[in-house]
Amino acid sequence: MRYRHADVALAVKRLQHRHHRALSQALQPLGLSLVQWDTLRHLANHPDASLHDLAVLTFQTDQSFGTLAARMVDRGLIERVPGPGRAVRHRLTEKGAELRAAGQELVDVVVKTSLSRLSAAQLNELGALLDVALEEDPA
């Protein structure tokens, strides 16, 4: 079968939508939305990230992420700490770190199950092809 660009783009979107639904359902017993877990994951990898950095990493606007961050601070999942100048940085709390780890176990099961029909070689090839497609244009 010969795939057109639009067919591949739609398949990627459908897989992403399937993952979003399944991950949201899996994280629900922890009291986390997917974007909240994603925030915890990114803060684990980027401690002291700014609100703007976290908004970019989680595909949110600064304004919508600010609202989300405030709710997560209120729940004791993250904390705001002073940065250089007037900057505010964010860090995981102990509770946030525990929920991130518990969520990671659930996320791993969902994604592994979703991609289980691919052999190890196919999974590596798909990852490499997506890396190529996601490369920034040099222009």
From TrEMBL:
Stretches assigned to the HTH marR-type domain: 5-135
Gene3D superfamilies found in the cross-reference section: Winged helix-like DNA-binding domain superfamily/Winged helix DNA-binding domain
One record GO biological process: response to stress
Name this protein carries in UniProt: MarR family transcriptional regulator
Organism expressing this protein natively: Amycolatopsis dendrobii
InterPro entries linked to this entry: HTH_MarR-typ, MarR/SlyA-like, WH-like_DNA-bd_sf, WH_DNA-bd_sf
PROSITE patterns registered for this protein in UniProt: HTH_MARR_2
GO molecular function: DNA-binding transcription factor activity
One Pfam family recorded for the sequence: MarR_2
